Amino acid sequence: MVECKDVSYIYTDGTVALSHMDFSTANGQVIGVVGSNGAGKSTLFKCLTGIIKPTTGHLTYGHQPIKYDKKSLQDLRKKVNIVLQGVEKQIFLPIVKDDIAFGPRNLRMSSDIVERKTLEAIKITALESCKDKLIHNLSYGQKKRVAIAGVLALNPEIIIFDEPEAGLDPYMKQQMVLLIKALSESGKTIIMASHNMDFIYETCDYVYLLKKGNPIADGTPKDILGDYELMVTADMEMPWILKVCHQLNIPPVDSEENLFKMVKGQN
Fold first, then answer.
1. How many CB atoms within 10 Å of residue 63?
2. Centroid of chain to Cα 33
3. Predicted local confidence at residue 85, as pLDDT
């Protein structure tokens, strides 16, 4: 479990990027961090992965304080890793299977372990048909899966996704939902940021809402994303299904099927 207590981060120019943030993965298996641009999502993720050290506050992993020496940070990133929005920044080698194996090899794992972890990651991300292909010949969605597989090959306990569905077509977005749910069911803790509230509502167990570096609310997706005044305050849009519920003045529902049942029952 990774946890923040009263964490703030102030840049050298005085910009407060994150202010008095409390955060814990104990609240769910898939956790959303949402807010408009400049809300502090990326800064939080940098803190969670040890890329930056909070100006104030405390960060722990497994109830132990995070340390910032080289070995401690290497150990942390074996357990907490991130899939970036710009997948090109996370691809290092031209062939799919070689790129996925890059992380384990860089950690000097034995060739047998590297092979096993690489094949497992390829299977989970459904890249079997692409494993020997050149990455630059793949679609954007396939490249994103390669980046995810590269992280999975390191077998972290917590995976952070920055805009996992960005740039994907509707079919690939749904495949991403299924992949995230499968990873969660396998025991991984998922933390993710997205501007797509429909995606967040469909995948997350718990949500943190930020505005201009300040945490303003946290709770279940229904409670947070379904609160019209709160979402307006955060300069965010409600998921479409909750927006319809709000406009019809009916309780929030979690699926189209339940929405139709609710509306039909009122008629």
1. 7
2. 8
3. 86
